[in-house]
């Protein structure tokens, strides 16, 4: 009921079309009674009554009814299709809208496949329900009721005898549909597994080839393929068991009609024409009974899908705009972490982090993998909220910033770079779609991407494959960097952005960034000391805590973690160097 109420909320806007469709369906149900009636009359009046002149009128009427039925049916099917497409359009838009609002934590815990299933299979179940199931239930019900009424009108005794058999057909048909349903569900589940094996194989084809695991993959696929075949055969076996029963029961209806009706014709309480009418109405009893189970299954499928879609639509983002009044203001880029701790569920990842950065300063963050570096910068744009403590930007808690303004004023080049299947120009201009090609090129030059882009046959118009296929890791990083630069943010966050770029290019990028970033606050997460050594403040993180902080030289002087990493990366110069020589060795001035 809840699902019906929910879908009615969408159908309501098209209720005139829906009710017009139902009215036309009712008309067709009524028209369905006419041809059996005329067939009976032909027998009684034309064959037995010898009123041959009536034959053409009856035949003409029968043809007319058939044509009218077809035209009306065509129209109401279109009406239901139009209602369903409109309903689905609205729900799809809402779902997509909701997906845009949901935050990182939702995508952390929800599989892409689940979301896709809701956007496709579950939506299709709702479409099927509104386009087909509703009118099929209505049509079958009205045909059954009208046919029963009509039969009772012609001959109550024969009608009662035939109707006594129909619940048995209904019972077996419903049993069939309920027995076959789990096999359908199993087929669908197995199909999804088969699909994911294929999908993973395609996405991971490079790994498969690199590890020469083709035979293993073929074997893995064969197991799932075999299971799919078995499940399809199981389903067919259920059909084979029940279908003959159903067909025999439909035959029983005919037997009852001929037996009881025949006796009645012989004893004169029924005309032969009326028996023909009954015969022509057998389908009107048989069909709805056979359809009942399927329609019930469809309704169940609709309810399950509607609940899943509703569930997604009702999922609330955890990061919400708490700003009561619009406080759109320019961001200068002063950042302060005040005793910030953060946990993903039960796992504490950041512990008591405090530091302060003035607008225009550069912060380098370094530390072993899993130390919490990315998590720290994720709190800046409120991809997650702190568990305790506060992150302030320009003296205002990030929770008090309007989220869109907060994120719009920052640009982040994430570790896991995502490029859209679009042109290079489109990808760079993603955050600033109105930017001219000159601006796009200027950003690409700063990111040291211009040269390799222009060397491509189609230059900035080159379409990048899915996730940036066709480009090297370093090229993708530079395009992502250009995308961030073009946004002209107040705070630029680079998470391991130049890790795949050679040292020399990295150095050129750093020089450009240095001039570019004069008035911008910049966070640089890196594993290479060379990436952070120029920073105004370097934070060394380990196990979610800041274990060392300061400038390059200060940290070297501490001879702690930073010093050790520095020595590892630049060779051990008997521990005497203060960094300047090494910078020279790296090519820096
Ligand atoms: N979305 C998440 N859900 C749960 N745990 C997470 C999530 N992201 C990161 N973690 C965990 O938080 C810890 C810190 O991860 P984080 O990515 O911040 O480290 P990092 O210092 O940036 O590492 P790296 O240098 O490898 O990028 C790790 O133990 C990681 O397993």
From TrEMBL:
Claim: Cell membrane is one of the keywords in the record: yes
Domain ABC transmembrane type-1 residues, every copy: 21-301
GO terms under cellular component: plasma membrane
ABC transporter domain span: 335-568
Source taxon at top rank: Bacteria
Transmembrane segments: 16-34, 54-72, 129-152, 158-178, 245-266
Topological category with respect to the lipid bilayer: Multi-pass membrane protein
Location within or outside the cell: Cell membrane
InterPro entries, alphabetized: AAA+_ATPase, ABC1_TM_dom, ABC1_TM_sf, ABC_transporter-like_ATP-bd, ABC_transporter-like_CS, P-loop_NTPase, Type_1_exporter
One MF term in the entry's GO annotations: ATP hydrolysis activity
Pfam family membership, one: ABC_membrane
First-listed, main subcellular location of the protein, grouped into a coarse class: membrane
Record's keyword terms, sorted: ATP-binding, Cell membrane, Membrane, Nucleotide-binding, Transmembrane, Transmembrane helix, Transport
Name of the featured protein: ABC transporter ATP-binding protein
Organism in which the protein naturally occurs: Neobacillus cucumis
